Give the backbone structure.
Amino acid sequence: MSDPTPYPRFPSEDDVPQGWGRAPEPASGAPAAPVLAAASGSRGTPEPLGVLTGLTLAAVALYTLLQLPRFWLARDAVDRWLDARAADRSPEEFFTPYEVVDLVGLLVLLGGFVVTCLWLWRARVNVEVLSPTSPHARSRGWVWGGWLVPVVSLWFPFQVVRDVLRVRSHHPSFASRVGWWWGAFIVASVATGVESALVPTDLDSTGVGELPAFAALSSVAWVVAGVLWIRVVRAVAADQAELLAGRG
């Protein structure tokens, strides 16, 4: 899952072209123009990630914990559904603990999405203002839209996160870290989709017996993705702290 794109060398002041964060040489006797201030105002104001980092880590930790009992909850749900079918009761007439945990997980996931995008947006603004020559594969709007637009959601979020992290990190291992996180996220998402399709909605639903297997697969994938995402978030936070410290 390594990223074949080489890490760019972090630009020094001499590398920055005029109009991209470094003031042009003033004419004789003229004061230097505050180009950096103007550039900062047009792109946004750099700010510490602050509490958003903690909220992002808390959301992923909580969602990961909710995945741990899913296999056993799925087995219990299958038994309940089969017993209900034998009694000629529809699965829609009652909720199983498996479904309750799923609903809680969905709410956590939605909250985590909002917090994570706010966190990633702030990190992206900081990079654009304080390192304006650093490359980005996607425009800033894809920080939010990349997760929501079909098809491109398979790789746009990965590119956004990769570019925010790699600007300050010169280690190829960081690219691999983001790549493995995204791979685990895709596997978990696909397994969860299949798992959801196996949940019975009426007495004629089939394939219920396969649910625990996919629940186990999605649980493992989500736990792996969660652990890797925590490492990515911490790496971005550390790089952002360094970037903001260099500003002073």
